[in-house]
Design brief:
There is one protein chain. The protein is α/β, with parallel strands linked by helices. The strands form three sheets. Strands 6-7-8-3-9-10 form a six-stranded mixed sheet, sandwiched between helices. Strands 2-1-4-5 form a four-stranded antiparallel sheet, covered by helices on one side. The radius of gyration is 19 Å and the shape is globular. The relative contact order is 0.16. It binds adenosine-5'-triphosphate. The site of adenosine-5'-triphosphate has 13 residues, from β2 and α1. InterPro entries: AAA+_ATPase, ABC_transporter-like_ATP-bd, P-loop_NTPase. Keywords: ATP-binding, Nucleotide-binding. Pfam families: ABC_tran (PF00005). It comes from Nocardioides marmoriginsengisoli.
Length: 266
C-alpha cells in the first residue's frame, strides 16, 4: 500500500506561537481520516501543510512521495484536492457552478481566458451530478445556499482526479438537513474504492461519515491520539481532546457526543 502522507516531527511556528508541535502522522492510500479538535487546536494549519500551502518550520513532511521543501509545490498542488473557507471566499460570486469546477484544471479560481476541452466540461458536469448538484450547473456561485456551495466545492476539489482529497470543515455553516446531506455524500465517496485518500476536518463527531476509517485528534498543536476509528474513538481520548468529560455513543456507524452530566446525591 502506498503512503500518501508521512509527517515526521513536523513543527510549525509563527513568531512565538507553536501552531503544530512535533506531529507524526501517516496516511495510506485508501484511508479516510477525520481530523478532530477544538477551536485553535491546529487543524487548519495541519491541512494547509498537507496540501502544500505552507512548509514546516522543522521536521519532514512527505506528500505523495515528495518532500516539502524539495519539490515544486506548483507541481504537487494539482495532485491534491483541497477545499477550505479561504478558497471559497476567493470564488467570484458571478461564476457559474460548472466554471467553478472546470477551472480547477488550471488551479485557478475564476475563469478568464483558459481553454478547456469537451472532456473537461463533461467531467465537471459529471462530478456535479455525483455530489448531488446536478440542478446547479448553470447557477452562479453567489446565488447558491451554503450547502449547495459546499457541494460545488467538493466537485471542484475532485476535478483534477487528485490522489489526496482534503476537506477543511465542509459542514461548517450548514443546517441539520444540509449537514445530513453532506454526510451522506461523503459516505458514498468514502466507500467508493476508486476515491482518493480523504482527510476531513471537523469539530463534531456527529459529522463523521460512515465509511471513514481513521481519526486524528489534536489539542494545543499536539496529537492526542491517532489511528483506526474503532480503537481511537474513545470517551477518554475525546474528553482529553475537547478538555471536558464527554459521553460518546455510536449507532449505525454514526457517532454522537455530549457532556457527561454529574449525578447529585441527596
Ligand atoms: N500567523 C499566526 N501567528 C500566530 N498564531 C497563529 C497564526 N496563525 C494561526 N495562529 C494560531 O494557531 C492556532 C491554530 O490555528 P488553526 O487555524 O490551525 O486552528 P484550528 O484547529 O483550525 O481552529 P478552528 O477550529 O477555530 O478553525 C490558533 O490558536 C491560531 O490563533
Amino acid at each position: 500500500m502506498n503512503t500518501v502522507l508521512e509527517l515526521a516531527d513536523v513543527t510549525v511556528r509563527r513568531g512565538q506561537a507553536t501552531l503544530l508541535d512535533a506531529i507524526n502522522w501517516t496516511v495510506n492510500e485508501g484511508d479516510r481520516w477525520i481530523v478532530l479538535g477544538a477551536n485553535g487546536a491546529g487543524k487548519t494549519t495541519l491541512v494547509q501543510l498537507c496540501s502544500a500551502q505552507i512548509h514546516p518550520t522543522s521536521g519532514v513532511a512527505g506528500i505523495l512521495g515528495e518532500v516539502l521543501g524539495a519539490v515544486d509545490v506548483f507541481e504537487l498542488r494539482p495532485r491534491i484536492g483541497y477545499t477550505s473557507a479561504a478558497i471559497a471566499e476567493r470564488i467570484p460570486r458571478d461564476e457559474i457552478s460548472r466554471d467553478v469546477v472546470v477551472s480547477a484544471s488550471y488551479g485557478v479560481v475564476g475563469r478568464w481566458r483558459e481553454q478547456y476541452d469537451d472532456l473537461d466540461h463533461d467531467r465537471a458536469r459529471a462530478l456535479l451530478l455525483e455530489v448531488g448538484a446536478g440542478k446547479l450547473l448553470d447557477r452562479t456561485f453567489g446565488t447558491l445556499s451554503e450547502g449547495e456551495r459546499k457541494r460545488v466545492q467538493i466537485a471542484r476539489a475532485l476535478m483534477t482526479d487528485p490522489e489526496l482529497l482534503i476537506l477543511d470543515e465542509p459542514a461548517a455553516g450548514l443546517d441539520l438537513g444540509g449537514r445530513e446531506d453532506l454526510v451522506s455524500t461523503m459516505s458514498v465517496l468514502a466507500t467508493d474504492s476508486l476515491s482518493p485518500a480523504i482527510v476531513l476536518v471537523s469539530h463534531h463527531v456527529e459529522e463523521i461519515p460512515p465509511g471513514f476509517t481513521h481519526v486524528l485528534m489534536l489539542r494545543d498543536a499536539k496529537v492526542v491520539a491517532a489511528g483506526p476509528l474503532a480503537e481511537v474513538m474513545t470517551e477518554a481520548n475525546l474528553s482529553t481532546t475537547f478538555g471536558m468529560s464527554l459521553q460518546l455513543s455510536v449507532e449505525d456507524g454514526r457517532y454522537a457526543a455530549r457532556r457527561r452530566t454529574r449525578r447529585h446525591l441527596v
